Amino acid sequence: MSSGYGQGGGYGSWDREEQTRQFAREEYEPPAPQRPAGPTVDAGRLWAAGVATAIVAALVAVVGTLVVRAFLRIAFNGPASSGVLGDERTILLCTLSAVAALAATGLAHLLLLSTPRPMTYLSWITGLVTVVVALLPLLGNAPLGERVANAVIHLIIGLVITSLVAGAGRAARRPR
């Protein structure tokens, strides 16, 4: 009964061939790639909402122009002889409103990818830009009614863009 170390049997023994066969049967799985920490952004969803926001912003500009020209009888975006839709300035307002919505969407995308609490920053940035854009018409030389109407329409467009893009940004954020 001489059982020594490495002689088989007992507590310290093992079969090297059996161990090799066991490891050979196991499949090798490479480690999963590590993803960066933080949420991801559903860019398609964000930009689809951005395009929808651009359309809404342009329509708000049209409706604002109609209300001011048809109901308030203020010669906004063109002389009174231009009709209820005004002149090319109405088209410019609609186009710039849509471009502002797309720019806000781009800013939201950038902030979602790079900052903590991105929608807070977006709301502050777009809110302050809205205030500036709403105050600028009040500094002009046009009649007071026209300046106030312009400022109110700019304010409403800015609020619409801010709220819709911030909501789209929250909806486009996916936790990991």
TrEMBL record:
Key words of the record: Membrane, Transmembrane, Transmembrane helix
Transmembrane stretches, start-end: 46-70, 90-112, 119-139, 151-172
Stretches for region Disordered: 1-39
Start-end of Basic and acidic residues biased regions: 14-28
Gly residues biased stretches: 1-12
Record InterPro entries: DUF6069
Family matches, as Pfam families: DUF6069
Protein name: Uncharacterized protein
